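Hey Z.,

So I finally got round to the zinc ion thing we talked about over coffee. Here's the setup:
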Amino acid sequence: MKKALLTVLISFTFGAGIAQNTAYWQQHVDYKMDVAMDVKTYQYKGKQELVYTNNSPDTLRKVYYHLYNNAFQPGSEMDARIQSIKDPDARMVRKVKIGDTEIKESRIKTLKPNEIGYLHVSNFTQDGQIASAKEVGTVLEVTLAKPILPHSKTTFNLSFEGQVPVQIRRSGRNNAEGVELSMAQWYPKLAEFDFEGWHADPYIAREFHGVWGNFDVKITIDKEYTLGGSGYLQNPNEIGHGYQEAGITVATPKKTKTLTWHFVAPNVHDFTWAADKNYLHDVVQGPNDVAVHFLYKNNPAIIENWKKLEPLMVKVMGFYNTTVGNYPYKQYSFIQGGDGGMEYAMCTLMLGNGTFEGISGTAAHELAHSWFQHILASNESKHPWMDEGFTSFIEDLALNEFAEKKVANPFKGSYMAYAKLVESGKEQPQTTHGDRYDENRSYSISSYVKGSIFLSQLGYVIGQEKLKETLKRYFNDFKFKHPTPNDVKRSAERVTGANLDWYLLDWTETTNTIDYGIKDVKDNAGTTTITLERIGRMPMPIDVLVEYADGTLESFYIPLRMMSFEKENPTPSIKRTILNDWTWAYPSFEFTVAQPKSSVKKITIDPSGLMADVKLENNSYLAK
Ligand SMILES: [Zn+2]
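And the result:
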């Protein structure tokens, strides 16, 4: 999703960091759903058949489904969280005056029965036998009729009834921008079981983790509505609405009141759609013949922005293809969902009003999630920094690439925001579950910003070329899987041969910070001895740039011993000397430059600004 609070293997063995050493496996789902939407009551009814393949080595006696809609009810965990967190999401509260004081009231708290969301399941069977299914808030606990043995399949059938809530966040109806139906997390969605066990997280705020598989979905709805969503429409010439093949005229008989849209979405872990009577629908050809759809309200105030967005997003998609790996599906849809932005399989639901900068930034962000969530499906609840951070990283790269004025370091603002969070004392380690941060602000900076710095700083640690290779290696090794933090680190290690365990551990599992300083610069018989000190707990390899009085530059590189690695010279135009390595336990490091102190004009630790040193004042020396 978009940062709202910062307006700002076939057969693979996991590393030793994960308490498990068996070959990689993942569960598989084949969904078939048939749903009918009543656009007067915003209630829908459907049937679901799910063929579940247990590829795990375990015998399963229970399964869990997510019933996300149930979060949008007074008294839900989501409601309770909005009421208790210090900085609730502005979209989920309204300001109310009580006497002289203004308070923020949860919008969920005041939903009426016909405005709440719900999703109820009935007639649950497993291979034709009745199984007991118990609704517990936003989760359905199913005690199976018979165990599912390792490496076997079973078929679940169920009926469901839902009501689309007035939009609070992400999914919902009739939102602030007037979009009628944003249908995200709308169906009973099987929870993921992986090498760590079940991930049947209640829906409190964030975010999602799903089972890889195939979706076959039929949606029956009033014929006036245009839909956009995941997958490929199977009956475009029957539906029309801009999906029909060139030259085809679709004539829906007058007496026909509804249309049944048939979508197939292969190799995804979610299925999302949106519908509105007033969508404009443009289709543009993207890189590698991907059809890029744009569905937005027929609102004169926004049409120009959306038209401008189309060629830019085609370019951005091409940039992501070359930076990470080719987008593997045949379509992608940018859909005005009218609330922030959230990534889904082959589509995004995003805000559509506002400035061009606003929508293009959001669109570039959500599209980037196609790689970092919908192809590389890390667990967003447990490791939100992996998808939000990596998405923000390539988003910033892309926006800089296509900006009128490029900057040398597009991540500068991120380093400042991270340093501010550290200074506030409110930082929590990135191993924190997305719902367990004390404040939304610390979640956002930790996930989006510190997660992005994980990569930009890795570029400092291993070199920019190796970082580029790492992203491609990570994509190729883990696409259509559930990579873990250790997997990213292993991709970088495989590409470089460096040892990076310390980097993953200190940066993501602790709140240790980086602080190096120039302690002393002194004359030493016509040469100059420079003493550096390590003040922060986190180790780093160090680049030092020395500027002499005559304007010449010389750089020095101090490898970090525990990495067993030397990076390429980041600025080959400047002569570089590789010094002895610096081992972490030594608080200081001394080296000598050939010129006298009187010739040394300036010394800078990390001239690139890509090392997240939290105290920059002591990083440079300027001759008096
Ligand atoms: Zn995001």
